[in-house]
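queue> pop job 88
queue> type: inverse folding (structure -> sequence)
queue> payload:
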């Protein structure tokens, strides 16, 4: 019984850790044709999320389409924030210096 409680405690701590936010200031390019696992691993390697498991868990619940493009992550980023940004296609805005207005990067 104590071993079971210890294992459950470790699982709980891991889940809390993996779903906690990361302070970051990164721009990540997600190439067209990447799988959700590829995207989760890329975000993990770039330091945007603490664990690919959190991203994949969210994806298994929402089952949304993930959009290719260049994404900017600033400040404290939770895994669901990163997921929703990519799911909604909220790509990094480029500045048009001549016109002085933002252009959305479309792929």
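queue> result:
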């Amino acid at each position: 019984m104590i071993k079971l409680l210890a294992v459950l405690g470790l699982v709980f701590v891991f889940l809390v850790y993996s779903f906690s936010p990361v302070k970051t200031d990164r721009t990540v390019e997600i190439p067209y044709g990447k799988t959700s696992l590829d995207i989760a691993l890329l975000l993990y390697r770039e330091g945007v999320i603490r664990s690919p498991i959190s991203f994949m868990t969210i994806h298994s619940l929402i089952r949304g389409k993930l959009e290719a493009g260049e994404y900017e992550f600033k400040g404290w980023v939770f895994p669901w924030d990163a997921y929703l940004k990519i799911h909604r296609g909220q790509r990094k805005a480029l500045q048009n210096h001549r016109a002085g207005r933002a252009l959305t990067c479309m792929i």
